[in-house]
Design brief:
Layout: H1 10-23, H2 29-41, H3 45-50, H4 58-72, H5 77-81, E1 83-86, E2 89-92, H6 105-122, E3 132-137, H7 143-151, E4 155-161, H8 164-176, E5 183-187, H9 192-195, E6 203-208, H10 223-228, H11 242-254, E7 255-264, H12 270-279, E8 282-288, E9 294-301
Parallel strand pairs: 3-4, 3-6, 4-5, 6-7
Antiparallel strand pairs: 1-2, 7-9, 8-9
Helix pairs in contact: 1-2, 1-4, 2-4, 6-7
The structure holds glutamine.
């Protein structure tokens, strides 16, 4: 690594890292250089500029050099620092889990809005303490489940993943945010762990950010994603919708009367997803993100006897 030396000031170290990362083709070179230096020094990003004249200790310099080198190989910043912000909360992440994406905040916002509607619909009804039963399937680091528990104090959540390593990360995040007692962590395939818990027909809301990238598109993903993130959390099979196809019958079995299913999809998958849902007798609504891309699908099972689709 050219021009790296031990007696860097913070300012000089940042300049060096920016240049190095840029030469490696990292688009967010300036931001990444700052985030990694903040991580190494324990300062916040403003602190880096306040103390820009201070010299790095040799331990800081060595740690920074190593992290910048790894970033240059496209290892994601969140894996290097071990954390990622989502919904204003800090989540621990490891290579066992997909890094939470800002786009997924839309799923959480919609889930919170729906939960609010359900609670107000029910107010006055003698439902056990107004408690809402939610499931987050494919929870990964628990970003969705933990955010929902934080923002919905009346929610009890089942967070499911097939990966025990992911569940460990999710449980740690639940403890960190003080919501572990309202989240049950279950290991298994999609919603099947709920079948043994006497929860069929009882869930108010199921949220899912399952793998939805079509297999053939995986090689075209950014190297940061393709080389470092768990492909099992991204690979949605030939058309990207296989995990959701398998989920639908299970979700129907688990949902309560007026229960809803909320799923994240990729841009351009709305139409195919709507067709899949219609064929399986669900009503649906495709919701776009701020960039106008199809991002979330809200679905409700249509009962065989119902004359019309369930209105949203
Ligand atoms: N949005 C993710 C990506 O672009 C995909 C997430 C998923 O498959 N659930 O990498």
């Amino acid at each position: 690594m050219r021009n790296f030396h031990e007696n860097f000031t913070l300012k000089a170290a940042l300049g060096w890292a920016r240049g190095y990362l840029r030469r490696c083709g990292v688009e967010s070179a300036a931001l990444d250089a700052e985030v990694l230096l903040a991580h190494v020094t324990g300062l916040d990003r403003a602190g880096l500029y306040r103390e820009s004249g201070r010299t790095l200790t040799s331990r800081e310099a060595e740690a920074y050099r190593r992290l910048v080198a790894r970033r240059g190989q496209r290892e994601p910043v969140a894996y290097l620092t071990g954390k990622k912000e989502f919904m204003g909360l800090e989540f621990a992440v490891s290579p066992a889990v997909l890094i939470p994406r800002p786009e997924t905040e839309l799923l959480v916002e919609k889930a919170c809005a729906l939960a609010g509607e359900l609670v107000s619909e029910r107010s006055g009804l003698p439902v056990a303490g107004g408690e809402l039963l939610l499931a987050d399937v494919g929870t990964g680091c628990g970003a969705i489940a933990v955010s929902l528990a934080v923002f919905l104090p009346a929610a009890r959540i089942y967070a499911i993943d097939c990966s025990p390593a992911a569940l460990e990360v999710a449980e740690k995040n639940a403890r960190r945010h003080g919501v572990a007692e309202r989240i049950s962590f279950l290991q298994g395939d999609l919603l099947t762990p709920l079948f043994d818990l006497d929860l069929t027909g009882r869930l108010d809301l199921i949220v899912a950010n399952l793998p939805y990238v079509p297999t053939a598109e995986l090689p075209g993903l950014m190297p940061d994603v393709r080389r470092y993130e768990p492909l099992s959390a991204l690979d949605g099979g030939p058309d990207g919708l296989w995990p959701y196809r398998r989920l639908l019958p299970q979700a129907r079995r688990c949902l309560a009367e007026r229960g809803r299913l909320l799923m994240e999809i990729g841009a351009g998958q709305g139409e195919r997803m709507s067709r899949l849902l219609a064929d399986d007798n669900w009503s649906d609504q495709v919701i776009r993100d701020l960039a106008g891309r199809e991002r979330v699908v809200l679905a409700a099972p249509i009962k065989p006897s119902a004359a019309a689709a369930v209105p949203f």
